Amino acid sequence: MTDVVEKVPKPDAPKPEAKHETGFGPRGNAQRQKNQRRQRDQEKDKWVPLTKLGRLVQDRKITTMNEIFLHSLKIREFQIVDFFYPDKQNSAPGQRLNLSSLDTSGGYLHETVMKICPVQKQTVAGQRTRFKAFALIGNCMGQVGIGVKCAKEVAGAIRGAIIAAKLNIAPIRRGYWGNRIGDAHTIPMKLSGSCGSVRVRLIPAPRGSGIIGSPITKKVLFFAGVHDCFSGASGATKTSGNFMMATFYALKKSHSFLTPDLWESEKLELSPFDMNSEFLATK
Fold first, then answer.
1. What is the DSSP letter of 7?
2. Are 212 and 239 in contact (CB under 8 A)?
3. Helix%, strand%, coil% for the chain, nearest 5
4. 112 and 136 in contact (C-beta within 8 Å)?
5. CA pair distance 139, 165, nearest whole angstrom
6. What per-residue confidence (pLDDT) applies to 30?
7. Which residue(s) pair with 232 in the sheet?
8. N or C, which end of the chain has less CB nearby within 10 Å?
9. What is d(CA 161, CA 154) in angstroms, rounded to the nearest whole number?
10. What is the pTM of this model?
11. Rounded Cα–Cα distance for residues 120 and 217 (Å)
12. What is the mean pLDDT of the chain?
């Protein structure tokens, strides 16, 4: 007789836990490249300041844009402006700009593209066509900037123009027509500016008059926080770029006049660079 040996089934080995790792092959490479691209974008978005002003802003030694304007400090990094205005007012994509819907509290930095036009340069190989963009930014409370940029693609020109506008942002002084009642609504005195052959003249207006001028003048003044103003222009005003720059130069002159209300002597403050010299030296 032969002994019958029963075979006892072996217990199932524990299944290895699934690891969320990219494998080999085209799918694994694609996922790996996607993760690397996302990591590069995150590192790119992280701001590493390169100037003294940027370091003071990032460490919150300077808390407002007015401190920068008070000491006439040059903004050389557009991330400084983004630091003070991190939020964007929500708007539907592709929606036409409506000035009445913009927030005028000063908490948002609004931006819009004023004009895009092709420009050409004659070279040995032929004509080289690029796109020129004009961008306008402002918080509707006394800060406005205009930027210009040329690029091979429209998207690059718009992006560069917005960055240039942030670097050119300037404070605008506002005033009253007649009695000082309520908030400042117009410019404090007559102003004029020119760019190319275009000359723009701005005149204070009573409350409720609105902005009397061309659509370009209305946009620039509204982004600066001026709600009542008379305006006049001469020259080749069809050149939109020179027209908006002339208006911007006129507004910048509002801080160049020493009116009687500013005759009182004030105590001079140290520059942020002098106040934080030890911090800038150690870091």
1. P
2. no
3. 35, 20, 45
4. yes
5. 13
6. 76
7. 201
8. N
9. 10
10. 0.81
11. 28
12. 87
